[in-house]
Amino acid sequence: INEAEWNMSVSADMMGTGRTINRGILRYTSSNPTRFFGSMSNEGQILANNGTLEFDSVEQLREGVLSGGDWIVAARAMVDLPEPIRTLTGDALVVGDGASIPALTTTQEIDGDAHLRVDGQLLLTRPLNIRSSGTLEIVEDGNVVVTDIVDNGGGNGADPSADAEIIQRLSGDCQPCNNPILVTPSLQNFARIVPGGHASIGPFNLGGNLVQHETGRIIVEYAGDQDGQGDLVNLSGEATLVGVLHARMLDGFEPEIGQSMLALSATGGISGTFDGVASPIFGPPLALRRVRPQYRSHEVRLVATCAADFTSSSDPQDPGYGVPDFELDSEDIFYFLDQFAALNIAEADVTGNGVLDASDFLAYLDLFSQGCD
Asked: How far is the C-alpha of 309 from the C-alpha of 291, rounded, in Å?
């Protein structure tokens, strides 16, 4: 039983038919292979930095389901598990790629609180479903190719999982980087897409089509309005939009009226619009303001305008419906009332408490009265 840190710098096959329990950190750095005979229960972390670790039996891996333990494998190392992985579930954390953990190449599902972090090449030839609070994270030069669809949070026909997410992230250690990418014919997003990671800036590169669903959310963050100062969803295919775009500002950045930031770029074009943009309201000494979407044939930008400026038209058939015009007039009031009546929290929840009631209407009138100067 290991409950502390076990450093293995010299290869040595672990003989016998007994049980090895790792509740601490097992760190393997030898350049030669080591084989664990008998049963391994990994309740802590296995860190393979070099060489090859082979396991005859892993208690957390049964019939293709890996249900626990941290399995962190560097690019120059390999962990050879006794059977292919079909499902990651429980609190399993797996860090590696198709070469360092060959069992990953059959993965079809990330469920529970499981987290798969890919920092190299991984090819999956079946649909990939991310459910519950499961996370697919692609980092540095990670390249995940799924030859079938990726279902993020849809549950494959079950109730959507709002907490499932796909993250692409860079770190300061990656110089230079090719940027992470997910390649799939179709990414069906019922949950969260997080470019750059939470509270950090970076791209979300998608080789294929993006289909947003009503529960789907994209979270973009900005530390400025220049290229490279904000998140960007960048796809080679077509984007079909509904759901909510969440805009957040970092490092004290508060855009002034008229400043705009690129949020999404789609080489194959854009159809539809987001149901709403969730944006903080920026305050004095300048006019109260927030960001609103501007839709073009191949991109979506976020532009800062006065906080009550929701639309340039109150006609849902007009291209200016939901697009700001930097003026406050009756069109904005009628648009707000339409969204309030439709119970569109993403647009009409002015107080930001997740509930639509009279306080939102009064708050909107207060914003409107403050004008656009």
From this structure: 10
Instruction: Name the nearest CA neighbour of 149 among 97, 98, 213, 101.
Output: 213
Q: Which residues pair with 40 in a beta bridge?
A: 20, 58
What gap in Å lies between CA 191 and CA 166, rounded to an integer?
9
Q: Give me the amino acid identity at 159.
A: D
Dihedral pair phi/psi, residue 41, rounded to 5°: -115, 110
Q: Please name the helix (run of DSSP H) or strand (run of DSSP E) that holds residue 116, with its range, or none.
A: strand 115-118
Q: CB-based burial of residue 256 (10 Å sphere; 0-12 exposed, 13-18 middle, 19+ buried)?
A: exposed
Q: How far apart are CA 359 and CA 351, in angstroms?
A: 7
One-letter amino acid identity for 289?
A: R
pTM of the prediction? 0.91
Do residues 241 and 267 make contact, with C-beta atoms less than 8 angstroms apart? no
pLDDT digits (tens, 9 = 90+) for 114-165: 999 999 999 999 999 999 999 999 998 899 999 999 999 986 555 667 789 9
